[in-house]
Specification:
Elements: H1 2-26, H2 31-39, H3 42-55, H4 60-81, E1 82-83, E2 95-101, H5 110-120, E3 124-128, H6 135-144, E4 149-153, E5 157-161, E6 164-173, E7 177-186, E8 189-198, H7 206-219, E9 224-228, E10 245-247, E11 254-255, E12 269-274, E13 279-285, E14 294-299
Parallel strand pairs: 2-3, 8-9
Antiparallel strand pairs: 1-11, 2-14, 3-5, 4-5, 6-7, 7-8, 9-12, 10-12, 13-14
Helix pairs in contact: 1-3, 3-4
């Protein structure tokens, strides 16, 4: 029995080392590894490591090593996943955007939307997973906020613009991505926004999907990208975005994760601006009607 336990502990240690290798080095460079990379974010690895540490309590050397490893992993996670809140001055000429995955509820959370529009006065409101949005919702929002133009978009999305919507074009690839390209006229001038929602299958080739999305937005010279990418920010495939676009990741407050509700695991909802625009601040608000955080970004 003791021999079996020793073998199980050795297998657990080997498997854990392999998971750490994937997370920090191999990542999702290879499609066959991406499901493991996405399924084991660092908080999960810390929890697994804590359990394995308990199994090695009888071996002092292993126990001390694993305790030190868990402490280091916690430091790394906190350093990468938590941005200390700081006071940021928002210029009067800044442009603001609300992006939210509304979680495909039977009804649109109108009360929450109205409260945030009144409070933030955003230039752009972009929502995905709004399958049950109705024209009555659009009429209600338009009457409550006459300075805005609201529309239901293809792909179960909604858009609100404090100004005028000039044109909308929709691109879809089945089981891959939906993108609405929205040309708008704001107080600060024209803006082209890509509102995207990518398929959530962990076995999908993310290199192809995110590469296609980047190609489409680059070809159209998109100014602002907002979306639920169903892919963690740590993915190597987002590094290509940062050649021509600025991520709002480093401009956040608190935990960077946007999913799921109440547990800071994955940063899958993101905002990017073209290099000629500068992010100023990214805020996140959590409401129990959705398992995704509401993102509020400011840029100029």
């Amino acid at each position: 029995m003791m021999k079996i336990f020793v073998i199980l502990r050795a297998c657990a240690l080997f498997a854990y080392a392999f998971l750490l290798l994937i997370h920090f080095i191999l990542k999702d460079h290879f499609q066959f590894l991406q499901i493991v990379f996405y399924a084991f974010p660092l908080p999960i690895l810390i929890f697994i490591g804590s359990v394995i540490t308990i199994l090695f309590y009888r071996s002092k050397a292993y126990f001390i090593f694993l305790i030190c490893l868990i402490i280091v992993l916690n430091i790394v996670w906190f350093n990468n996943a938590y941005i200390f809140p700081r006071h940021v001055e928002i210029p009067e000429n800044a442009t603001s955007v609300i992006f939210w995955n509304a979680a495909d509820r039977p009804t649109i959370p109108m009360a929450i939307l109205s409260k945030n529009i009144n409070k933030i006065q955003p230039d752009i409101i972009a929502l995905v997973e709004t399958e049950h949005a109705t024209q009555e919702d659009i009429v209600q929002l338009s009457e409550e906020f006459p300075a805005y133009e609201f529309r239901i978009l293809d792909g179960y999305m909604m858009i609100g613009v404090k100004g005028h919507i000039k044109n909308v074009s929709y691109v879809i690839e089945e089981y891959s991505h939906d993108i609405n390209f929205v040309e708008m006229e704001l107080a600060n001038g024209p803006l082209l926004v890509a509102l995207t929602d990518t398929f959530q299958s962990p076995t999908m080739d993310k290199r192809k999907t995110l590469g296609t999305v980047l190609q489409l937005v680059s070809e159209r010279n998109v100014d602002l990208i907002v979306g639920d990418f169903n892919t963690p920010y740590e993915s190597v495939h987002f590094r290509n975005f940062e050649i021509d676009y600025n991520s709002f990741h480093d401009y956040g407050q608190g935990f960077s994760a946007t999913w799921p509700f109440g547990i800071p695991l994955l940063e899958i909802d993101q905002i990017y601006t073209v290099k000629t625009l500068s992010p100023i601040l990214l805020q996140k608000f959590y409401y129990n009607v959705s398992d995704h955080a509401m993102l509020v970004g400011y840029f100029k």
